[in-house]
Amino acid sequence: MTAPPLDPTGADQRLRIVYCAVPDRQTGDRIARIAVEGRYAACVQAWPIRSVYWWKGKVEDGEEWALLLKSSPKKLGALFELLAREHPYEVPEILEIRVPRAHEPYVQWLLAAIDPESAEPPTRPRPAGSRRARGARDPRRTRAPRRRP
What we know:
Blueprint: E1 16-22, H1 25-37, E2 43-55, E3 58-71, H2 76-86, E4 94-98, H3 104-114
């Protein structure tokens, strides 16, 4: 069995996901388009959900749409303001989700999509057969630090 590829950790410094439930598809589509066109989010995914929750002293249930908005920490404040302003609920569900690890090409695409001026340059893989820099370790052979009892 081969080890999974080593993607860099620390994606939470560059990538965030925001979860938000809205009442219907039309509201979700409208908010998604505003968020992407305004470059508050690089991508928004939406799907139907069923919610059961307490509201004003009684249990409610109903159909809603879930939105998953992919953004960066730099854009979070503006994205939260946009969602709160455009959302029809009295108390909208707007949650930040940290992403400690992500596929690096995806992170690069996301940053370039929402903030082209400050995006990091894409990393290029080392050509096959080329040598590592002197003293560099092969990531497949890097050991974890020893733990003390």
